[in-house]
Automatic annotation (TrEMBL):
Domain Alpha-L-rhamnosidase C-terminal per the UniProt entry, residue ranges: 732-781
Positions of the Alpha-L-rhamnosidase six-hairpin glycosidase domain: 381-622
Family annotation (SUPFAM superfamilies): Galactose-binding domain-like, Six-hairpin glycosidases
Name under which the protein is recorded: Alpha-L-rhamnosidase N-terminal domain-containing protein
Bacterial alpha-L-rhamnosidase N-terminal domain location: 52-198
Pfam families noted in UniProt: Bac_rhamnosid6H, Bac_rhamnosid_C, Bac_rhamnosid_N
InterPro entries xrefs: 6-hairpin_glycosidase_sf, 6hp_glycosidase-like_sf, Bac_rhamnosid6H, Bac_rhamnosid_C, Bac_rhamnosid_N, Galactose-bd-like_sf
Disordered, as annotated region: 204-228
Extent of the signal sequence: none
């Protein structure tokens, strides 16, 4: 469907874009237009159901579309400002001979949240819009004045709240008749949609795309997979007083939870109870794992019963809410028949709390979360004779799956933001363990949204980018590594060429901070890791990451034939390498963390030596000592300044160390371990990676990985490094040439007696099986195999070797 759009931009009759300024020349979306929902319908006849019926659809801010009562899609995915995404879905399976109904609910947020940022409005567009067209044998059925609409009175507008800036929902079921989704619904009171024509300086009054402020529309590069329902696994009931008053849903649930009796009773679905005035029934639901998607509950109840729902990541031993929960909550007032609630936005948690209030008999029939994650087709795997490592690999995949939605997000249970730096781990895991690379390719493009000075936002396509306040300089350097991953794994020269200028601007942003060859006093929030590592002054960790990015950039520029920019990057790297010598500690055999005006401070971490290694800053004569430093676990201490402190206090500067800086070494938190493992492998220690990955057995979680070694969210994609490293280093599969024109197979099993697995490439799966006696490889591309000190160059095909004969 690459043809031009014929569907027109439509919205409700009251666009609510105000004209302000001295000459009424500044369009503004007033608060009265925020968080409102508009319902659209179109009835059309069919003589015969076609084999295919592609629907193209988008909206500002979010839509849900139904065909004859069946939910067909939700979207659009988060996108960059001025680049609205649209979705394509085949709706033929829901069409019938005779009258058909296509119905769309559009929600306009108005205020920026974690996954949406407003555009700069024109006088016509920017306060909500719908665009759709359905391709039928008789022609294209597009949005126009023949679509009927009403502004829904069922929802009470809400504002974003909490650390994730989630938007609560308050829905009056009495004003929400699900029959509107059917062809026979009486929409007599509805009115024709308003067609929007572009109205701005230079506007052409056209009513079809492209149009400002949405730009040329882009088909969603990473559509979600099929929905998967996750029913609740257990329920417990408590009762307490109805607090009454004007509580919002989140506060109401918290108040009932705090005052309800301490003893809970196990119950099952369907759950029936009789509500009494002044008494609140609290249901605590559990999944025994993190789930992420739309929260759905169904019930039979008399009209007017209130249901307040709140997902929860963590409960105490008495099943009560702990502090620091997701800000999302919902309130639903029953209509008395066909009562079903489905949250508009995805939420995440291990638990959910439902509070029932009112009078009469109520039966809760269902409670579930419906996940809509990016696809993970079957094929890749990792298996060994160590069940701990196999479980570690599987947990990382589940963690990344839950944080791979319309972008790579930090966690589904708190923020759901598309962080620029975190995503390098998610992407790497997908490249090594998922044949579907669409999100791995898309997220770096989504994050390529530089500020005017070239620095990238710390999180994109949401409130943080919109406010343009705090930024994390080192996150942009991790983003450069994600572009380098695309270069190596996909070999897509066009994609790399698109992103390389953004990478150059990132690198040049750092240049003015170079003093004597070292980046010094870099502004912004130099985070580095949640571990207690210094980012102030001249940080060796930040300089090492800059060195890696310079080398990555130079390699990609040379590949694209841009020798001049490659020379510039290598020249800066040479200056850095000469100055970096100051950090070397000859006595301890590693690199110190930071340089102050008084000299090099004594503090040392895994981070500094690892960053030096990946940054190409360790002379050959020191490589063995640096490797020994990174493998020495005896002096490691785990410290995380930013946990136990208020975030602002942590960002402003750490307190004094509470460990022996002369003897002890700060260990990397799970995120930065991807750099540590890369360093170990580069220094010749890949045989140790399997043992290092066993550290994850200490990382508590219910089948997903927590944010840090102790504390943080229960599902953080950045903690999933072993699911990359087990196939990359232990199984040993990587591209020897960009795009896997040639593969490298270099298993490093360490103490493992048996490893096997399959790794995706653009040409198919590379399969490797290794035990004490034999190595077997099946590859769709030519490859070089390296094991036990020998190597072979092989064409594509299946091969096996006796390890005894080969050596």
């Amino acid at each position: 469907m690459s043809r031009e759009w014929t569907g027109q931009w439509i919205w409700c009759a009251d666009g609510r874009i105000a004209k302000t300024g001295e000459f009424s020349d500044v369009p503004v979306v007033p608060a009265a237009a925020h968080d409102r929902r508009v319902q659209f319908r179109r009835i059309f006849p069919l003589d015969l159901v076609p084999a295919a019926a592609p629907l193209r659809i988008t909206a500002d801010s979010r839509y849900t579309v139904w065909v004859n009562g069946h939910e067909a899609a939700r979207g659009p995915g988060r996108g960059a400002a001025g680049r609205l995404l649209y979705d394509v879905v085949d709706v033929a399976r829901w069409l019938v001979p005779g009258d058909n109904a296509i119905c769309v609910l559009v929600r306009f947020y108005g205020e920026a949240n974690a996954w949406w940022r407003p555009v700069t409005p024109t006088f016509s567009h920017g306060a909500g819009v719908l665009l759709a067209e359905l391709e039928l044998p008789s022609g294209v059925l597009g949005t126009d004045r023949s679509w009927r609409h009403q502004t829904s009175p069922a929802w009470t507008p809400q504002k974003p709240s909490g650390v994730g800036h989630a938007v609560p929902e308050v829905l009056d079921g009495a004003l929400w008749d699900p029959a509107w989704l059917e062809p026979g619904f009486d929409d007599t009171g509805w009115v024709p949609a308003r067609v929007l024509t572009t109205l701005h300086l230079g506007g052409t009054a056209r009513s079809t795309p492209p149009a400002d402020p949405y730009g040329p529309l882009l088909e969603n590069p990473a559509p979600p997979g099929e929905p998967v329902e996750r029913p609740v696994r257990w329920l417990r009931e408590r009762r307490g007083p109805d607090p009454g008053g004007e509580h919002g849903p989140a506060d109401l649930v918290a108040a009932v939870d705090a005052e309800a009796g301490p003893d809970s009773v196990p119950v099952e679905l369907p759950f029936t109870t009789v509500l009494e005035p002044g008494v609140a029934v609290l249901l605590t639901a559990g999944w025994d794992q993190v789930v992420a998607g739309t929260l759905v509950f169904e019930l039979d109840a008399p009209p007017g019963v209130l249901v307040d729902a709140r997902p929860a990541e963590d409960l105490d031993e008495r099943l009560r809410l702990r502090p620091f929960q997701h800000g999302y909550a919902a309130r639903y007032r029953t209509r008395g028949k066909s009562d079903r609630f489905c949250s508009a936005d995805p939420v995440g948690g291990r638990f959910a709390l439902l509070v029932l209030r009112g009078e009469g008999e109520v039966t809760v029939r269902g409670l579930s979360v419906v996940e809509r994650l990016r696809p993970r087709p079957p094929g890749p795997f990792f298996a060994s004779d160590d069940p701990v490592l196999d479980a570690v690999y599987a947990a990382g995949l589940r963690t990344v799956d839950l944080t791979a939605q319309d972008a790579y997000i930090d966690c589904p249970t708190r923020e759901q933001r598309a962080w620029t730096g975190d995503s390098v781990v998610h992407q790497s895991v997908d490249l090594l363990a998922n044949p579907d690379w669409r999100l791995a390719r898309w997220h770096p493009r989504l994050a390529a949204s530089p500020r005017p000075d070239g620095m990238l936002p710390m999180a994109v396509a949401g409130d943080y980018e919109h406010r343009d306040g705090v930024y994390i300089p080192d996150w942009a350097l991790h983003w450069v590594r994600s572009v380098h991953n695309l270069y190596r794994w996909t070999g897509d020269a066009g994609l790399v060429a698109e992103l390389l200028p953004v990478a150059e601007r990132v690198l040049r942003w750092f240049e003015p901070f170079s003093r004597g060859g070292l980046l010094t006093d870099v502004t912004g929030w130099v985070l580095l890791d949640w571990a207690s590592v210094q980012g102030r002054g001249a940080s060796s960790v930040l300089n090492g990451l800059w060195g890696r990015a310079l080398l990555d950039f130079a390699e990609m520029a040379e590949w694209l034939g841009d020798a001049g920019r490659a020379r510039w990057a290598r020249g800066r790297h040479d200056e850095l390498a000469a100055a970096f010598e100051q950090y070397w500690d000859e006595d301890r055999g590693g690199y110190r963390d930071w340089l102050t005006p008084a000299g090099v401070a004594p503090a040392m971490s895994e981070h500094a030596t690892a960053a030096a290694a990946v940054g190409g800053l360790i002379p050959p004569s020191r490589r063995a000592r640096a490797l020994a430093f990174l493998l020495d676990r005896t002096a490691l201490v785990r410290r995380a300044w930013s946990f136990g402190l208020m975030p602002l206090r942590a960002a402003m500067g750490p307190p004094a160390p509470d460990w022996d800086v002369e003897r002890e070494v700060v260990a990397a938190q799970p995120f930065f371990r991807y750099v540590v493992h890369d360093a170990v492998a580069l220094l010749g220690g890949a045989d140790h990676i399997a043992a290092l990955c066993r550290d994850w057995s200490e990382l508590a979680g219910d089948g997903t990985w927590r944010e840090v070694w102790s504390g943080g969210s229960y599902c953080h994609g950045w903690s999933s490094t072993p699911s990359r490293d087990l196939p990359l280093y232990v199984l040993g599969v990587s591209p020897a040439e960009p795009g896997f024109a040639r593969a490298r197979i270099a298993p490093r099993p360490g103490a493992l007696a048996r490893v096997a697995g399959a790794v995706p490439t653009p040409h198919g799966l590379v399969e490797v099986r290794l035990d004490r006696s034999e190595l077997a490889v099946s590859s769709p591309v030519p490859f070089t195999v390296e094991l036990d000190g020998w190597s072979r160059d092989c064409p594509a095909g299946r091969f096996s070797w006796s390890r005894e004969q080969a050596s």
